[in-house]
């Protein structure tokens, strides 16, 4: 499985749906050829909602499916979200998430850590190794 550390950052920025214009321009160039880079705002919002649900409610090692149906000329996206492990880091509950997305012949696969913030949102960040 290929890991894309920058893709994790790109997903978080896309998930926030409010990045600064220069940063968005850079990320847009980087992720243009990825499944995430081709998502509509509706698809992105749906994925963010599912990621939050999996991080809040999913059991480690249990895969959850996510699908975005075809819209207009866009092919559907099939996804698998799997929380791999949970730990506390710097006083925050953190979960390692594996995400696999496929749209037609494009595939994104990555693994990254998300930690729960005081406001209840999950943010991607580096977590200390065990």
TrEMBL record:
Keyword entries, A-Z: Signal
Signal peptide: 1-25
Region (Disordered): 59-92
UniProt keyword annotation of Signal present: yes
Protein name per the record: Surface antigen domain-containing protein
